[in-house]
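Title: Comparing notes on inverse folding

I've been comparing how different people in this forum approach sequence design from structure. To keep things fair, I'm posting one structure and asking everyone to reply with a full sequence. Here's the target:
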């Protein structure tokens, strides 16, 4: 689903997912740009495979090749991606004449599964413009369809309104085949100089989320993200059996070449993660991360998989 202003997924999730590679002991990436309009990348990802008892049975390798090309003064961007069992084609159109004082983007994405020859596609529209005075409206639509027999078609939509530092909107996922709304979210955000506040209410699950992400005005070289999720039904058994869970992440840019990442997850399990990114030179960057299931290690919670994960990524640029 396309991201839109006011959706906590926009900046919040990056703090918890980017450059954490638990379960992937080794990722090797190569990237080159032979011209300003063409870039080529290749990656090898090795994933640890464990049985139900947490014993490592071996490693699976995934090879991904990506080719990107832009033309028409970067108004059209094309991407081809090939990996084990699938091929992806994507094209994005961002006309400059329609992106002055407003937003108008079109995107097509298709994924071919080489095992069954089925194609899964998404057609996307993103539009935003001034509604009146200083109020702006934004619309995102995604239409998902597949050639697979019996596959459902769906429409994901989001509409939001922005006035100064306040944004609110709704986001939904509708099943065309079943003629049923699968998800419905009410979202809002309030931005201040140092901190952006986000509020999300899931109408169906009745989960309420409050999240914050600081701005560069707080500290230029630090990013902090935090959230609290409450099951207003009172049925969820998360932190210590209560219907509440929380997450915190911190990103510290120690210098232009070194970045430290920390995150803590307090839910039905307690996880502590640490990541380090180091640019060695213009051609090589190294990222590694550690993830520990603290509650499993202390015997507070049970799990069949290993409570510790390590990940390493080597990124070569030419």
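Reply #1:
Here's my take.
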């Amino acid at each position: 689903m396309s991201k839109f202003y006011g959706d906590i997924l926009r900046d919040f999730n990056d703090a918890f997912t980017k450059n954490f590679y638990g379960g992937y002991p080794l990722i090797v990436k190569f990237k080159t740009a032979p011209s300003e309009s063409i870039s080529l990348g290749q990656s090898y990802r090795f994933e640890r495979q464990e049985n139900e008892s947490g014993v490592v049975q071996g490693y699976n390798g995934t090879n991904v090749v990506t080719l990107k090309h832009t033309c028409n003064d970067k108004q059209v961007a094309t991407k081809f991606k090939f990996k084990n069992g699938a091929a992806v084609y994507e094209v994005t159109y961002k006309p400059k004449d329609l992106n002055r004082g407003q937003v108008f983007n079109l995107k097509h994405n298709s994924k071919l599964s080489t095992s069954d020859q089925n194609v899964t596609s998404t057609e996307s529209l993103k539009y935003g413009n001034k509604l009146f005075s200083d109020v702006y409206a934004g619309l995102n639509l995604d239409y998902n369809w597949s050639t697979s027999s019996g596959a459902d078609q769906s429409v994901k939509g989001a509409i939001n309104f922005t006035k100064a530092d306040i944004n609110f909107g709704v986001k939904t996922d509708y099943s065309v085949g079943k003629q049923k709304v699968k998800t419905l979210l009410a979202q809002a955000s309030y931005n201040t100089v140092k901190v952006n506040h986000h509020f999300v209410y899931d109408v169906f699950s009745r989960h309420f989320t409050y999240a914050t992400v600081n701005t560069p005005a707080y500290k230029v070289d630090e990013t902090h993200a935090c959230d609290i999720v409450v099951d207003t039904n009172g049925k969820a058994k998360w932190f210590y059996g209560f219907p509440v869970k929380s997450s915190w992440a911190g990103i510290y840019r120690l210098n232009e070449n070194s970045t430290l990442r920390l995150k803590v997850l307090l839910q039905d399990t307690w996880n502590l993660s640490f990541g380090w990114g180091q640019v060695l030179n213009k051609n090589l960057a190294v990222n590694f991360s550690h993830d520990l299931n603290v509650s499993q290690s202390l015997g507070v919670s049970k799990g069949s998989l290993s409570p510790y994960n390590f990940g390493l990524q080597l990124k070569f640029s030419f």
